[in-house]
Design goal:
Elements (H helix, E strand, L loop, with lengths): L8 H25 L11 H20 L2 H26 L3 H6 L33
């Protein structure tokens, strides 16, 4: 419970709008500044502008409304940020550290060969056995 003189609502609203701004900048960067290989900025026109418009709309709703509508806009913006972050994770791929920890059995180094040998069925069981003397 907060004290009656302290209201954290403006701080939370500013943090939400800042977080939406970060996702909007990342979306603009992905769509127009650094597009995928083989694609130009014009190829990403719809996939870049629609999320940006949704983010700007969510930020405006969060800034100007109260109650249920603000909560709904924040919930949608949070889901949108989660999807955008997963897309970034998928595009960047796994790190080299994660790959080195999950190597397959084929790529693991084999054990060194022993200096002694196990007798086979065709070789004598004892040294000198089967050797003709004399």
């Amino acid at each position: 419970m907060t004290s009656p003189g302290r209201n954290f609502e403006p701080v939370v609203v500013k943090a939400a709008v800042l977080a939406i701004g970060v996702v909007v900048v990342r979306t603009l960067d992905d769509a127009f500044i650094h597009p995928a290989a083989g694609l130009g900025a014009g190829d990403h026109l719809l996939s870049g502008l629609v999320p940006v418009a949704a983010g700007v709309t969510a930020a405006a709703v969060i800034l100007r409304t109260r109650g249920r509508l603000r909560s709904f806009a924040a919930l949608l913006a949070g889901f949108w940020g989660l999807v955008a972050s997963m897309e970034l994770f998928i595009e960047s791929g796994p790190s080299t550290q994660a790959c080195s920890r999950t190597t397959s059995a084929r790529s693991r180094p084999s054990l060194p060969e022993p200096s002694w040998s196990v007798p086979s069925a065709s070789s004598p069981a004892r040294p000198g056995a089967g050797v003709a003397t004399g």
